[in-house]
Amino acid sequence: MKKVSPSARKLAEEHGVDLESIEGTGPGGRIMRGDVLAAAAPKDGEKTPPVSAEDAVAAVEFEDIPVSPTRAFIARRLLESKTEIPHFYVENEVDSEPLSDFRNRLNGEGDKGSPKLSVNDFILKATAVALQRVPAINVSWMGKNIRLHKRVHLAFAVSVEDGLVTPVIRDAHLKGMRQIGWEARELAQKARDKKLTPDEFSGSTFTVTNLGMFGIRSFYGIINPPNAAILAVGASLPKPVVGPEGAIVAGQRMALGLSGDHRAVDGATGALFLSALKELLENPSLLEI
Q: Is 0.85 surpassed by the pTM of this model?
């Protein structure tokens, strides 16, 4: 069955247009109002069918896209998070040049057939280690108590057609970087193919969202409950910095933004976590590969 927007279906009924005879130009072949209007347009020698001014303007200016069940679920969850959880925000900046150099060296030394380590692989592994160093951030607000998680189940945001999903890497603190990277790529592909099982996108204790690949300098995420915090990662960008002897030199910096649930986590705890993460990313040889 062809995909048809509700407004296009109504317009087709009004003008007696057979939807099966139309090829949609919308996303995924969806039939839009403009497609119906084009089909209803008179052929040579035919009289023009009546089209209201409202229909003509609407077809040019906008298209109402129905909200999918996935998008509706995401909207409800984000609204609940933003209205019910008292967010606070802290930020730190990382010298990302050592990470870039170390990553390039490892990828150059690796087997030609093996997947290259990405910046995100380093971030996920470093986050898992930092959560072990500062366990007070790996918690959930339970109302009458704060639940301290002894294992790191690390969620990461993946952009899909209907919004964002957050697959989970179980026991990330026990896994090396290559294993984490392999699982992240497998889970991301399953998310895009809509093949994630409920167990693969539930039960997280902390979430990472990374927009660095889009060149975003810095941002803050909305907490993914029942997590008490979410890490937002910006791009590694060239920037003038003050060198060891006070001179302005070229450097690379990456912004890390933490959104925390102030019921369960304090600003000082968030700052300690970002400091631990900064140390690991600036000294990537400390991480288990």
A: no
